[in-house]
Amino acid sequence: MEFGIIPPVRTGATADPDWMSAFARHVESAGFESLVLVEHAVVISDYTSTYPYAASGRMPLPDDCRIPDPLDLMAFLAAVTDRITLATGVLVVPNHQAVVLAKRIATVDVLSKGRVRMCLGVGWMEEELRATGADPRTRGRRMDETIEAMRVLWADSGPEGATFDGEFVSFAHAHSFPKPFRPSGVPLHIGGHSEAAARRAGRLGDGFQPLGLGPDELALRIAQMREAAEQAGRDPDAVELSVSGYLPTTTEEEVAAAEAAGIRRMLLSTSMSQDLDGLADEVSTFADRFGPLS
Fold first, then answer.
1. DSSP state, residue 238
2. Quick one: which of 109, 139, 218, 282 has the most CB atoms within 10 Å?
3. What local confidence, expressed as pLDDT, does residue 272 receive?
């Protein structure tokens, strides 16, 4: 079992360079596999979209929360760490143009020597998507195309360059360098709670990160992912599974159950505190209980 850490986004601390540098270095030294960063390009204060992971339908972040761009934050953290994987959870794909996104991801991946993992989603706040120029009605098809187009750009296409002709993305004889650090490209995981997300992970994902699900629904989504992978001629066992947890309360029994279900990693939220010493103790206590982590 691998363990990742989601920093206390709600406090705004992820936009504090000194705080975030120290936190990232401590998480790395404790042996955690990854540091997981979130995205909201913009928050619309009077949104009417339903946040699907809380009974209230409202996300727990304040409207004015300082949420840095995750790719820019990855690049910053790559310079102050050595080993830890830098991941998203979740990058809202329809917020981004596919060709530009491919370049940005590959650049950070090369500069970090292959330490990038992307978890991608379609987004839930329709108002945010409209503000970035995306049509919420086409976000699923746009995400599928973006994944396919990025992989085409990352592949070795020779002197003729890469060609892709889709509904939202089209290019011919395109050369995008640098390529990702690994010939296989940057791992692209799919995040979400819906059947569509599960099936997208089976068809296109290197991993699946189901969000906000109870045990029965989680089992159903994993089964749907596996079915979609088999229908696409892919090995469902090759699709990595990541689930959420809470750093202060995760138990040995929960970890054992996740391992038995074939889960590869748990991504753990911290308590909502800007007390760096206190959170460092939280991180160290978990590492002592479940370590060595690396």
1. G
2. 109
3. 83
- Tokens matching residue 35: 């540091």
SS3 240: strand
Residue 231 has what DSSP assignment? H
Tokens read off for 51:
């946040």
CA distance 27 to 285: 12
Q: Does 273 score more than 90 pLDDT?
A: no
DSSP SS3 for 253: helix
| 201, 163 Cβ separation under 8 angstroms | no
pLDDT digits (tens, 9 = 90+) for 61-74: 999 999 999 999 99
Q: Enumerate the β-bridge partners of residue 265.
A: 2, 242
Q: Where are the alpha helices (DSSP H) in 156-247?
A: 195-204, 215-231
**Residues recorded for the chain:** 294
Q: Where are the beta strands (DSSP E) in 59-106?
A: 85-88, 91-92
